[in-house]
From TrEMBL:
GO terms for biological process: regulation of translation; regulatory ncRNA-mediated gene silencing. Belongs to the CCR4/nocturin family. InterPro entries: CCR4/nocturin_mRNA_transcr (IPR050410), Cnot6 (IPR034966), Endo/exonu/phosph_ase_sf (IPR036691), Endo/exonuclease/phosphatase (IPR005135), Leu-rich_rpt (IPR001611), Leu-rich_rpt_typical-subtyp (IPR003591), LRR_dom_sf (IPR032675). Residues 62-129 are annotated as: Disordered. This is poly(A)-specific ribonuclease. Its EC number is 3.1.13.4. It is found in: Cytoplasm; Nucleus. Its cofactor is Mg(2+). Keywords: Cytoplasm, Exonuclease, Hydrolase, Leucine-rich repeat, Magnesium, Metal-binding, Nuclease, Nucleus, Repeat, RNA-mediated gene silencing, Transcription, Transcription regulation, Translation regulation.
Length: 680
């Protein structure tokens, strides 16, 4: 059992009046001694007492009777390899609030600008400055009572820090003020969970560049040091809300920025935009090429046509703001900079069909269509529904969806725009959810019916095939609502889109393939989309399994039942046993985790972009693999866009094989006529 403490502490501001040795006299002094020993051990200073950190990141243990030389730190998750646990009686200290006087002193040290600097979306609660300590008995420790300490304070004019400190990666707050530190090791960046770091009132002359990798920081206090310059890497601390710099001999340029209204944000933006060498490194530190993943060989036993498809959300200029992407320099968010890299990404794939989301209206005509036409593409574009009610000038900046195709391989037969809010209005069937939630969102989809040129068929198979030189494929592209709280809207939008796509295919089959039945009359579908939905969502379940239950959790128990039957691709009969079905057999080009994420930002990384294709007419041959994850980690890329990655989405690219039907001689004369239809 641990030592029994007697409390002779006289409640005065000057400390203990006991005649016993201060470290052993009372609870108050015992706590002070424990913290002093912790500071000495972390700082590498010998102590007459022994201190140990039990292998639990939640417990602080102290025993003044352990002999010198007892290992100073052990930790769970994981323990430092050089330290071993000893089976000895421990006394446990557990964190609790301190007096108000301590809070006032803490506020004096926090003499910084608390302006928000970027895009912190989670609520931040600063550490409570009232830090007191309670004693956990040996019995409580032995019985496994849990304690928690996520903060650590070291004081006492410490001059250096032990490397053991950097193994405490669970820490969220580190108080190192009022010491004699002249430098901070770069290993401090290992404390990646820190949200609060106080280095005030030391003798620090320079900061490590690695400090900029601690992107979880919300408060950084550097007051009253000897700093003359700041590393540009500090600009990467986009979540920083408070930066204390007063009392440092900084250059006038830095001080002028810092002292402006919203000075913290302005200073961090300046540092990030001028990050030393960033622009110079772009040409030499390009991401490694994404690997090609071959999934199967083409079917050589029957005639086929091969073509490739790209799906890419290019991040519209009006959405590329520092408020949303605070980790990206302003110049790298600028459209004039990003559009070059976006076009380079598109052209490097050399896809036969390109589906783009978030294309600004003006940029479609002045940039995308102009550039791609020079390279043998034609295209179709439609903006979001809000453009209907805007002036001509305002419409220029509305984004939408675009599809491009190589004219040497395809001919445009039809083009269609699907406006989800119009469909919601026409099919609400009295559903308040349809009117209040779906109709208010102006997302759209587009579709083009393409005819394969005989050159593509001959190019793929190596020989002409009489009677099979005119084949059709429908390419659809959509961008669903973004908000995770509106999973019902995304699912309904997807149902509406599939319903319209099915209608387009059915009408085209009847008018363009009269007299042909069975699989020969079915027009294959390629569906590209930013669904804003994860693989386990109702949206993806609906597409990949052919249907979804009417009481699926993504509907949020809202009343859609009556209106949903209108969007069944099989009409009223498509609703069976409480399940809404569609008439396609769709497969995702990227299955089985081949792409770990298609959207890569600081606070979200996941799969929300997809390429689906219809079976059995289409087969997948290969896909473009993901960007090397190790490259992202090694270059400390916490999110995109980035100077080397122009969008927050990664492009998808797949090669497909269209299996061509061999028509009996009596049906060959009925294969497609030469009339072309066009409808908006």
């Amino acid at each position: 059992m641990g030592p029994q403490w007697r409390d002779n502490h006289n409640q005065t501001d000057t400390g203990c009046t006991s005649l016993m040795p201060q470290s052993l006299a009372c609870t108050h002094c015992k706590i002070k001694t424990a913290l002093l020993i912790l500071a000495q051990k972390v700082a590498g200073i010998p102590s007459p007492f022994a201190f140990a950190l039990q292998p639990s990141r939640h417990s602080l243990h102290f025993d003044p009777f352990l002999p010198p030389g007892t290992p100073s730190l052990t930790a769970r998750n994981p323990p430092p390899p050089q330290l071993q646990q000893r089976s000895l009686p421990w006394t446990v200290l557990q964190a609790a609030p301190t007096p108000r006087k301590q809070r006032a002193r803490q506020r004096q040290r926090r003499d910084g600008d608390a302006a928000a600097t970027g895009m912190p979306k989670e609520k931040y609660d600063p550490p409570d400055p009232r830090r007191m300590y309670t004693i956990m008995s040996s019995e409580e420790a032995a019985n496994g009572k849990k304690s928690h300490w996520a903060e650590l304070e070291i004081s006492g004019k410490v001059r250096s820090l032990s490397s053991s400190l950097w193994s405490l990666t669970h820490l969220t707050a580190l108080h190192l003020s009022d010491n004699s530190l002249s430098r901070i090791p770069s290993d401090i960046a290992k404390l990646h969970n820190l949200v609060y770091l106080d280095l005030s009132s030391n003798k620090i002359r320079s900061l490590p560049a690695e400090l900029g990798n601690m992107v979880s920081l919300r408060e950084l206090h550097l007051n009253n040091n000897l700093l003359r310059v700041l590393p540009f890497e500090l600009g990467k601390l986009f979540q920083l809300q408070t930066l204390g710099l007063k009392g440092n001999p900084l250059t006038q340029d830095i001080l002028n920025l810092y002292q402006e209204p919203d000075g913290t944000r302005r200073l961090l933006n300046y540092l990030l935009d001028n990050l030393a060498g960033t622009a110079k490194r772009i040409s030499t530190e390009q991401p490694p090429p994404r690997s090609w993943i071959m999934l199967q060989e083409p079917d050589r036993t029957r005639p086929t046509a091969l073509f490739s498809v790209m799906c890419y959300n290019v991040l519209c200029d009006k959405y590329a703001t520092r408020q949303l992407y605070g980790y990206c320099p302003s110049w790298a968010l600028n459209w004039e900079y990003r559009k070059k890299a976006i076009m380079q990404e598109i052209l490097s794939c050399n896809a036969d069909i390109i589906s783009l989301q978030e294309v600004e209206t003006e940029q479609y005509y002045s940039f995308f269509l102009a550039e791609l036409k020079e390279r043998g593409y034609n295209g179709f574009f439609s903006p979001k529904s809000r453009a209907r009610t805007m002036s001509e000038q305002e419409r220029k900046h509305v984004d939408g969806c675009a599809i491009f195709f190589k004219t040497e391989k395809f001919t445009l037969v039809q083009k269609h725009t699907v406006e989800f809010n119009q469909l919601a209005m026409a099919n609400s069937e009295g559903s308040e959810a349809m009117l209040n939630r779906v109709m208010t969102k102006d997302n759209i989809g587009v579709a083009v019916l393409l005819e394969l040129r005989k050159e593509l068929i001959e190019m793929s198979s190596g020989k002409p095939h009489p009677g099979m030189d005119k084949q059709l494929v429908l390419v659809a592209n959509a961008h669903m609502h973004w908000d995770p709280e509106y999973s019902d809207v995304k699912l309904v939008q997807t149902m509406m889109f599939l319903s319209e796509v099915k209608n387009i295919i059915d009408k085209a089959s009847r008018s363009l393939k009269p007299g042909i039945s069975g699989e020969h009359a079915t027009i294959p579908l390629v569906l590209c989309a930013d669904l804003n939905s994860l693989p386990d969502s109702g949206v993806v379940e609906y597409l990949s399994t052919g249907g979804v239950e009417t009481n699926h959790k993504d509907f949020k128990e809202l009343r859609y039942n009556e209106s949903l039957t209108n969007f069944s691709c099989n009409g009223k009969n498509g609703t069976t046993n409480g399940r809404i079905t569609h008439g396609f057999k769709l497969k995702s080009a990227y299955e089985n985790g081949l792409m770990p994420y298609t959207n890569y930002t600081f606070d979200f990384k996941g799969i929300i972009d997809y390429i689906f294709y219809s079976k059995p007419q289409l087969n997948i041959l290969g896909i473009l693999g993901p960007l090397d994850h190790h490259w992202l980690i090694e270059n400390n890329i916490s999110g995109c866009p980035h100077p080397l990655i122009p969008s927050d989405h990664f492009s998808l690219f797949a090669q497909l094989e269209l299996v061509l039907p061999f028509l009996p001689p009596q049906q060959r004369k009925l294969v497609l006529g030469t009339d072309k239809l066009s409808s908006d």
